[in-house]
Specification:
Largest sheet: 8 strands, antiparallel
CATH superfamily: Electron Transport, Fmn-binding Protein, Chain A
CATH topology: Pnp Oxidase, Chain A
CATH architecture: Roll
Number of helices: 3
CATH class: Mainly Beta
Helix content: 10-25%
Order of helices and strands: HEEEEHEEHEE
Number of strands: 8
Number of domains: 1
Length: 130
């Protein structure tokens, strides 16, 4: 899991795919965090992405570092604990002007049953499950 975190942290932006009915939805994300031995992302409950994940928690992340790309397929699980929200916001203090551990909007999700594949133009992918 640390390798996945390091890859996504290095790229700074990854793309999160969800589904809305039969239509895929993809958007840039930047939050990635390890808390309590799990890999977390963050969003706002008022956003469409949150509603899409609530309806279908299967997500995929994708990023490219200039030489290799990563795809992570997982089930996103909401964590309502204040400690999880506080940890994410401590890692991304620039979000504190929009989010708070106490508000009804801040949402942190951990990636369950994840399978990551790291690809390059040469060779077979490296597969990591966590």
């Amino acid at each position: 899991m640390q390798k996945i975190y390091d890859f996504l942290k290095k790229t700074q932006t990854y793309y999160l795919a969800t589904a809305e009915g039969g239509q895929p939805r993809v958007r840039p994300f930047g939050t990635i965090h390890i808390f309590d031995g799990k890999l977390y992302i963050q969003t706002g409950k008022s956003k469409n992405v949150s509603k899409q994940i609530a309806a279908n928690p299967k997500v995929e992340l994708c990023a490219f570092d200039g030489e290799r790309w990563i795809r992570v397929a997982a089930t996103a699980v909401r964590d309502e604990r204040r400690e999880a929200k506080e940890s994410m916001l401590a890692a991304y203090p620039q979000l504190r002007d929009r989010y708070s551990p106490e508000d009804a909007n801040t949402e942190v999700l951990w990636l369950k049953d994840a399978e990551a594949s790291i690809w390059s133009f040469a060779g077979e992918p490296e597969i990591i499950r966590f």
